[in-house]
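Late entry, written up from scratch paper. The run itself happened at the end of the previous shift, but nothing got recorded in the book at the time, so transcribing now.
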Amino acid sequence: MLRQWLLSEGLCLSSYVGSHLGNAVKLLRDSERWDADKIEDHQLGALRQLMHHCYTQVPYYSEVMRSRGLCPEDFSSLADLAKLPFLTRDIIRHEGARLRAKNYSDEICQFRRSGGTTGEPIRVAVNDQARAFEVASWLRGLAWMKHRPGRPMVSLFGGSLGIKEHWHLKGALRKWILNERFLPAFELTPENVGHYYNVIRQAQGGALVGYASAVMNLVEYMSRQHLQGSPLESVLCTAEQMPEAWRKRISDVLGAPVFCYYGCGELNGIANECAGVDGYVVSQEHVILEATNGDPTQFGKRGKGNACITSLFNYSMPLIRYLNGDILTLQPRNDWGRLIVQVDGRTGDQLTALDGHAVSSALPPHLVLKSGVPVWKYQVVQTESDKIVFHYLFRDGIPLTSDMQKVLIDVFRRHLGEKLQVRFVENDFESTRSGKHRFVINKMTTSRNSSP
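Output as recorded:
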């Protein structure tokens, strides 16, 4: 009860003492009653403030706006975003320092290095207010997905991968408040699935949260050992596309509805599935989402296209019309006033361990993120059960040293088998027939989740 009070009333009350998270939680609670016009008015007000900030404090956007004869007052509607160019990963890599606001020092920012599910990691600075809206949107999304924050939460994610991490009081407090129990996704095997199942059985009325492929592996191993059912209220998946066959299988085995939520390393809390709604509900309070056909002079209000994201409160490093590599379809829902999105997420083949069990395709991006190896593009190709090839390109001229290679090899062997052979190849990436980059390719099998 204390946890649930802290995550609802406690956070709202903290807004009165200037808490960024408290303010965001209170705004998102109030906005539940807004219609489409009110939501758009809020977005436009936030966009205008962001444009003033960019014009005076962000060298990259100041130059872009001045070169196009633009000033902040020229943004009088959301559609005026089409006056600005797209922001790509290449631009972030080459203009990173000039995308940083002059009045936001490193000391007041959080730095993220995306896991690179496109195979192209980037580094982004995030300020407290933007982070607060992400967390508030995630907490609200949990409620939309039939989980009451504070109830038990079992997390099936990557963990440390054996890479040394420092203990943080903030992280420990977060884990206590969320009532979280952690299960390492990449260490799941048919032999230890009984332990995972016992942990889930103790989460009465809670939720299982994890990578889609890891949850799918869990239920497959459970089914083989005739482990059926759970006391969960819901299963929440992210990071990978959820095929409908997976959704049904997970729901049947665990006896709970399955929901997904959407974000990326650069910007979290973008959208959540919601009970009774077909698609993801966009957290429009802190993002403007477009589906673009590739023409930057058009504002992608609806239809299918490349995901184009504007973060309204990241003043430290504004991401405006950022192309994150996803494909989505936008559709306004007039009876609710909310924007609904269908996400064609990125998929990758699962890896196969030497003993034959499947390992989530989330392992390579999580490894690249945790290890900090200086690659800006990578791809893992499994050619045989005991052989993988790690393709890569350098970042900023920093070589992939033998010590860095050893870190990668050690983690791959820990999760795929000690006799695994890893070969490193610069460049020479493989693509699908449509030219898409896949960050994991398993040539041994036709994976359940491989791209066409």
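The chain has three domains: 2-134+265-344, 147-256, 351-442.
(Scratch paper discarded after transcription.)
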